[in-house]
Amino acid sequence: MKTTLAAILFSVTAVSAMAQSTPVGLWRNVDDKTGEVKAEISIAETHGALSGRIEKALGKDAKPGAVCSECSDDRKDKPMVGLDIIRGGKKAENKDVWEGGKILDPENGKEYRASFTPIEGGKKLEVRGYLGPFWRTQTWNRAQ
Questions:
Q1: Where would I find the beta strands (DSSP E) of 2-107?
Q2: What distance lies between CA 47 and its chain's CA centroid?
Q3: Rounded Cα gap, residues 118 and 24, in angstroms
């Protein structure tokens, strides 16, 4: 009986830990320049590819009804809340990183190549946007 209970507890803990080692979930992005929380972003995985959208605008500059006026594609003038900012990105072989996707910076309308790496046991997510040989990294916090 004790062995069975221990096995169940171990498997629940292991599954919970594995579920956290993924970019899938609800995140609070933190501006790498100001340290301010800007938004809550939900990331989902469908058919092995990531997608992410803004669920809630936060921070002192959040404006109700704001739209992506700087966007130049199908997201132009779409509301910020609900805006798709992550498209694509697949888990790399033998690594805990999702790469090959794109991420949109709705403040300037630019889209960057992106990678997503869960760190600290999945409590944080390193989001790196690439433009040519240059990159910028933000660390997002998992929303509880």
A1: 25-30, 37-46, 49-57, 84-87, 90-91, 98-105
A2: 17
A3: 10
Q: Match 């132009």 to its residue by tokens.
A: 76
User: Which of 14, 18, 24, 26 is closest to 116 using CA atoms?
Assistant: 24
Amino acid in position 120: E
DSSP label at 1?
-
**Domain hosting residue 9, numbered range:** 2-142
Tokens 């997608």 found at? 51
For the chain, the domain total comes to 1
Confidence of residue 20 (pLDDT cuts 50, 70, 90): low
Q: 10 Å Cβ neighbour count for 64? A: 8
Average pLDDT estimate for 123-144: 94
